[in-house]
Amino acid sequence: xxxxxxxxxxxxxxxxxxxxxxAVSGRTSGNxxxxxxxxxxxxxxxxxxxxxxxxxxxxxxxxxxxxxxxSRDNTKNTVYLQMNRLKPEDTAVYYCAADIWGAWGIRTKxxxxxxxxxxxxxxxxx
Length: 126
Description:
Layout: E1 2-7, E2 10-13, E3 18-26, E4 33-39, E5 46-52, E6 58-60, E7 68-73, E8 78-83, E9 92-99, E10 115-116, E11 120-125
Parallel strand pairs: 2-11
Antiparallel strand pairs: 1-3, 3-8, 4-5, 4-9, 5-6, 7-8, 9-10, 9-11
């Protein structure tokens, strides 16, 4: 089992930055993906970024590529999402999730992620 707790959301002006954190507990060994998904009001939850826990490989949605950076600190069992040049359309609840069966590479479908955090709100004002 994996437990995930997000933090770091808030209100920021367009063009600003925020860093989200996802504290991982339970299974902290082995290679699996930890990802960030987001859900805007009235929209489906969508993939934003993910990183392999052991290997460090990353993947990004086109909408955040070049602005967001995902990283992990294995000593702190934490995954980060650094979000720069934020836009109003980035406003959403951001969820951290783990795909413990995806040892061979990053998968981007919501249904492939087994464990989820409670979410943290990010609001970008124009």
